[in-house]
Amino acid sequence: MIVFHIVGLAGFLNAQTVSIFLKLVPFHLLLMFLLIYVDQANKNNAFFFALLTIYLSGFFIELAGVKTELIFGKYAYGSTLGIKLWDIPLLIGINWVLLVFGVSSALSYVPFGSKYFKVSIGAIVMVLLDRLIEPVAVKFDYWSWQSGRIPLQNYLAWFVISWLMLFVIFRFKFEKRNATAAVLLLVQFLFFAILNKWAF
């Protein structure tokens, strides 16, 4: 996982290879999902239902967001995330799964705090990560904002939606500790932080 992100950084930061690496983004997301899936212990029904719930919730929230412009603001998806249904990349639900499972897995290693405390901290972490993702996503045509600026509304919506998704995840009875998912969260923070510094 770490090697793939290091190679990805090199590809994104090189003007001669960036177009090639952008085409690999959908495959990268699927590979990260596969790694998390393989590392998951005790894949019970609750685990699969949690996956499906977060995937569908993420996809349809994005659909409502794009079509109504009331949730995140006025934005539209570009071509980087691959095949779309109703103008929404099918992989955006996978992206929500990676983020939510990463945060919930990381929080499961924290030995203190109530469920509500962890969910609230997790939602803040999600917003901080989105803050790093947004400029990179716009630059590399993941999505774009109509005004050219990322609205505060987007981050407020991210907090609320992330809080609800994490709350739902913690309600499901399956093994939350997944080292691969937790490491992916850290790697994503570093990946997007470096791109924010060096890709602009």
TrEMBL record:
Pfam families: Caroten_synth (PF04240)
Record carries keyword Membrane: yes
Classification via InterPro entries: CruF-like
Keywords: Membrane, Transmembrane, Transmembrane helix
Keyword Transmembrane set for record: yes
Transmembrane segments: 20-38, 45-66, 86-109, 116-133, 153-172, 179-199
Name this polypeptide is given: Carotenoid biosynthesis protein
Organism: Hufsiella arboris
